Each structure stands twice: as C-alpha cells, then as structure tokens.
C-alpha cells in the first residue's frame, strides 16, 4: 500500500442474489490505479442478519493480499437504531467501523456524524482522536439514480479547508445500478501519505458503501 495513490474497489455480482433477491455476502476485487489486483475483500456475516438487518448488520470484512494472507480487517457491530443522520454523534448512534491492520492491531475508526442531508463521516486514530473529515453531496441518493458521473466524497483535514483526496462511487450503468448492489468505489490520496492513514481511508470506503448505497439497492431489489 505504500506506493499506492489510488485504490479501486469493485463489488462482484452475485448471481444467486439476482435470482432470489436474498442478500449474499459481499465480495470485492481491490485494484490499483492501473487495474492490477492488489487485494481481495470478503464479508463474513450471518444469513439472518443480512436478511433482517440489511446494511446495519454485524459483519467483518476480511482483506487478503494476492497470497491469500489476511492483512487487514474491518468490522461493524450491530447497534439498534443506527444510521440516522440527524442524531449521529461520536458518542451515540452513528454508524461505525473499526479498522485493524494487521489483524489484531486497531489503527482507527470511521464513524458517521450528525448532519441534515449531506453524508458526514469522521476518521479517527486508534486513540479516537479525529484525523480526517469526509463529506458527500447533498442529493447523493438522487445522483445515484440519475447522474452518470462519479459521486464524490472529498477528504479534508479537520478544518475542512484543505482537500487531501477524495472517495468516489463510480456510475456502473442503468441496469447494474437499478438491479444489483455491485458497486464500484475508489479512494485517492497522496502517494506519500502515511500507510496507516491510507489504510484508514481504505477501510472508510466500506462504511460509505454499506451506509449510503447498500440500503438503496436492497430497497430496489425488494
């Protein structure tokens, strides 16, 4: 990850999910800026949780390298009544993921913050000290349905005056957008950014996917 300045995460289409409408475990190919596979991500979760709890379910995302060694882990614990943008705070019901790299070594967290309409996420270090702010567009749901451009989530410092990179959701075409939850996401950052910071922002991508887009696709499938 030290040499990377961009990571692309492509979710795989699950044929059984298309045929049955039942949410399957998410699987992703993780690519560098020239399309070379550098990691693989696979969700671990219970079937009943996926069906009953949707994107708020408890899960562990295992990140493995090309030699199938687990190098990173992203986890989300189930919390009742989580994900509301109006009341999410550092200490209450904001959607949160914990990020470990390597496994067993917590490097930080990403957590949803209170906002009116715009997605608002803060990235914290292992001591829960804030490091970065990620904000999305006001009408991110409408953009997902009607806009064929990337949907940008700028990454800034805590002052929100200096843009350090961006997260984005890539348009996949009308059919794929409407009938599958197989999204393509990415994150860009300076090549000389600390590896721990890159890993934290990479892990935050999965929060963006589950919190803002998994729910929408599940509703479409239903």
TrEMBL record:
Domain of life, per lineage: Eukaryota
ATP-binding recorded as keyword: no
Any Pfam family matching the protein: Scramblase
Keywords (A to Z) from UniProt: Calcium, Lipoprotein, Palmitate
Alphabetical list of InterPro entries matching this protein: Scramblase, Tubby-like_C
MF annotations from Gene Ontology: phospholipid scramblase activity
Necessary cofactors: Ca(2+)
Cellular component terms (Gene Ontology): plasma membrane
Family to which this protein belongs: Belongs to the phospholipid scramblase family.
Purpose of the protein: May mediate accelerated ATP-independent bidirectional transbilayer migration of phospholipids upon binding calcium ions that results in a loss of phospholipid asymmetry in the plasma membrane.
Protein name, as recorded: Phospholipid scramblase
């Amino acid at each position: 990850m030290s040499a990377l300045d961009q990571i692309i995460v492509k979710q795989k289409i699950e044929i059984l999910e298309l045929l049955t409408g039942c949410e399957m475990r998410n699987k992703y190919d993780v690519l560098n800026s020239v399309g070379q596979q550098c990691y693989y991500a696979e969700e671990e979760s219970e079937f009943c949780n996926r069906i009953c709890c949707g994107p708020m379910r408890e899960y562990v995302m295992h990140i493995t390298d090309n030699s199938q060694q687990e190098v990173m882990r992203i986890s989300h614990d189930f919390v009742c009544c989580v994900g509301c943008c109006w009341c999410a705070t550092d200490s209450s019901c904001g959607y949160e993921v914990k990020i470990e790299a390597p496994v067993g070594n917590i490097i930080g967290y990403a957590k949803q913050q209170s906002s009116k309409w715009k997605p608002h996420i803060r990235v914290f270090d292992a001591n829960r000290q804030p490091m970065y702010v990620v904000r999305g567009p006001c009408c991110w749901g409408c953009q997902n349905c009607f806009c064929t451009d990337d949907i940008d989530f700028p990454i800034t410092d805590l002052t929100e005056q200096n843009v350090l990179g961006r997260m984005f959701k890539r348009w996949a075409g009308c059919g794929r957008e409407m009938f599958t939850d197989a999204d393509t996401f990415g994150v860009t950052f300076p090549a000389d950014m600390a590896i721990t910071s890159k890993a934290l922002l990479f892990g935050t991508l999965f929060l963006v996917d589950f919190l803002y887009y998994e729910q929408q696709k599940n509703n479409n499938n239903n």
